[in-house]
Structure formats: C-alpha cells, structure tokens
Amino acid sequence: MIRVQAEDFNLGQEIAALHEGRRDVGALASFLGLVRDMAPNGADRPQDQAMTLEHYPGMTEKMLAEIDAEAHRRWPLQASLIIHRYGRLLPGDQIVLVACASPHRQAAFEACEFLMDWLKTKAPFWKLEEIAGQGHWVDARESDETAARRWNKADA
Amino acid sequence: MIRVQAEDFNLGQEIAALHEGRRDVGALASFLGLVRDMAPNGADRPQDQAMTLEHYPGMTEKMLAEIDAEAHRRWPLQASLIIHRYGRLLPGDQIVLVACASPHRQAAFEACEFLMDWLKTKAPFWKLEEIAGQGHWVDARESDETAARRWNKADA
Amino acid sequence: MIQVLYFAWVRSGIGLDQETIETEATSLGALVEELRARSDKHSQTLADLSKLRLAVNQTFVDLDASIAPGDEVAIFPPMTGG
Amino acid sequence: MIQVLYFAWVRSGIGLDQETIETEATSLGALVEELRARSDKHSQTLADLSKLRLAVNQTFVDLDASIAPGDEVAIFPPMTGG
Asked: How many cross-chain Cβ pairs, A to C, lie less than 8 Å apart?
C-alpha cells in the first residue's frame, strides 16, 4: 500500500493493520524516518527550524507503486506499506514509514532496506531546509546513490 | 533497554518512547516477530495450536544486555530496545520486538538485524510447538547460525 | 504544446512552477535548448544538465528522449526524499 | 555442591528442571560423566553433547571448563528464540 500525504500517521496502527487477523506473518520489519535537528550546534533555536518536503504529485505515487511492486517481485512479501509525507515539517516530526511483512525475517529486512534505498533515489521528493529564516535545498548524497546501486541485478 | 516478559506489548507506544521529545533521531528501524500458523496445511485447526517459549531466567537478561551493549559499541545508536516474551502464545501473537534509533538509516538497519541474528543464537529461549495436542521442540536452524556468523569480526 | 514542470531549486531558479511551450522540437534536448533561450533565469538554471533529472510523462528519461505534442515534461534536481 | 539446570528437551528428557549434585568433579566434562551415570534418562538425554549447549554461571563454556562448589551449571539445546 502506498500513501502520499501531508497529515501525520500513527505508526502503531499502521503496523498492526499489516498483520492483525492474520496467522501467516512471522516477520515484520519497518523503518521510520524523522526530521532531525539541522542547526550546526544542536539545541540553540528549535523554533527557527523547519523542513519542507516538495514532491511531484502523480509521479510520486507512480514511482512508489513501481518500487513497491519490484519489492514484491524480489521477496516473498505478504504485505507492505510506504507512507511518505510532504509539506512543512519540524524537527522530531515523522517523514516516512516503510514496513514489510513476510514469513521470514531476512526477506522482511532486505525488502525494507531496498524500499528505503530506492525511494531515496527514485521517488520525486525534495527537501528544503529552513534555519533562522534561511532556506536551502538539500543536496542529494552520493552515499544514497551507492546504497541504491547495491540492489542492481547482474542481469538487469 | 531490555525487557523479558510474559505480557504482550504495544509496538506503537514502545517505538514512540524511543524518539518522542527528541530532535536528533533521524532513523528508527524495528523488527516484530510473530507466532506463525504451524499446521502443515494452514487454516485447519486454529484453536489446536500454541507455541510455548521457555527461557533461562537470569541468563536471558544477561545475554540480551550483552548483545545490546555490543550493538552500541558497533553502531552509533541513540536508543535501542529488545522486548522478548515467554510463556504460552498463539498464532498471530507478538513474540519479540527489536528497535534501534540512530542519526542514519544504515546504522539503524544493521544494528537491528545484528540484534535479531545474535538474539536467535545467543539468548537462551526455546520454542515448544503444540499442534493438536502433540508437542515438539523446535530445532535450531543452520541458517540462523549462518546469519549470526556474518557479524563476526575479522579480528575477533 | 508541451507542458513543462519545474521542481525544487529549478522551480525557484526559473521563478515558475510550470509553463506551456509552443514548440516544433521532437527531442528533449532540442526542447531544453529552446527553454534556455527564454530568459536569463532559464539559461542559468538549466545550464548544467548533469545536475538535473528529466522526466517525460512521469517516466525518467535521457536528453535524447523523443517528445510529442501533449507530453508532460519535468525538470528537477536529484531527489532527496526519505 | 553444584546446581545443575536443564531446559527444553533436556529438561523433559531427564524429567527434572534442576538438581543439586554433590561432586568432586573440577571440570564440566567430569561432571557430565557423573550426570550420565545417574539414570537411564540422564544417560540417553546427555548422550550426544554435540546437540547440547553448556553454561557455567550463565556464561557459555566448553566441556573443558572448570567448575567449583557453588557454581550454577546449565545444560540445554541450541536456542530457538526470536
């Protein structure tokens, strides 16, 4: 399941919905991404910070659905979930939740990492950081590209 | 934090407690283990199945604390949690929750997988499956040993 | 007519989130050349394509991709979600 | 005196969850030999040590580990938690 939304989400309810009433899920791996304090010196000016997530409506949902479908092709998943927020967020706020249910833990973990790695490099989201009124667009990181490439198939 | 308990746990509350009120956690990876339906043919006799987890009180807490401390030595974790239940459980019940908070997602994921792999092979728990009144002790799996060994350090 | 969408610093650099372009261009490369000629902001923002990503009809493509009337073209920086 | 704890199928095989042993043994190997001699159930359950794990005072050890009066010894199968 894919959701792109401005609203916050309840992690406990979302995870529970993936396995409640089922008897075949043995393993459920999940990842929660949060807005970190961006000030170089930590605790100084909490109220002066924000992160605004912009996205490309339509293409975002399309890419997340493709990434999710690819995870289901690669691993024996019984359920999966990607929730990604957009809009203006504050330090400590939840940004993204990815969860994968499988009979086996290795599949659940790998699929969850795969979804995060591909999401980072293929889903059209951009982060604008604001500190003390100064906004700047976050640069893409080479380490994210590297992480995504480890899932490339030899035959692809 | 380590907890060994008969009672169920609330995943949402436990995860929230690891990051609420903080502004420095960027990544929170977690793993939930559940009792799977053990009947060879699935849905037949739900009420006839149970899994009883036995453990070695004292040594269990000691080993979990050692495993947790090792994870903190190896990765930059801001918080971690291991909850493991014992006693009689039914298909669909929650068994174990592991969660790791870090500034970075790779550390959170790796530490979470490490905790599960080591827990499987080093924490003194044993599973007794009961199906239709017949109990049998679950055999340890070579794949769990293999998974645990990948974390051995070259210099250890 | 081609609808062109801009995101993140491409949007703020050009000062538009989208524009409709009348063009005879049949390749994305030719379209980008025309866009660069529209203003100094276009020219500066679209100067270095190695820093940009391109999509046609919400699918990632390279500069040599074909375009046709009615297509939705998007130009944006590498993504930073998650 | 050594306290010996059994878990899982070792416990159900021997029919005891623990017992207190008066012994002169100073190695775990010698203690296991004495345990095997206590009953057929002991002998059968403890026959193949490659299928068992050993702990002294809640630390994993090998068969050549030393033991001393007051120690807590535990014998159990490979773990299957998680």
From this structure: 71
